[in-house]
Amino acid sequence: MNISQLQQKIGNRIRELRESKGVSQQNLAAICNFEKANLSRLEAGRTNPTISTLYKISEALEVSLSDLVNV
After folding, report:
1. Entry pTM
2. HTH cro/C1-type domain: from which residue to which, for each copy (predicted)?
3. Does domain 3-61 have CATH number 1.10.150.450?
């Protein structure tokens, strides 16, 4: 698996968890103090998130960091 594929899988996982909890992109971005466009790029796999970004998302979605990146 290359980096691009990994980014895509993590982005898909974030979207899946977000939608399963009924949270909009706008709301998740606001909770994490991100721009919605940045979250959109992350979910689309077009950016390489930092550990701190992934941690903020996992906290906001009330899942463990390992659940978030378990691809």
Report:
1. 0.93
2. 14-68
3. no
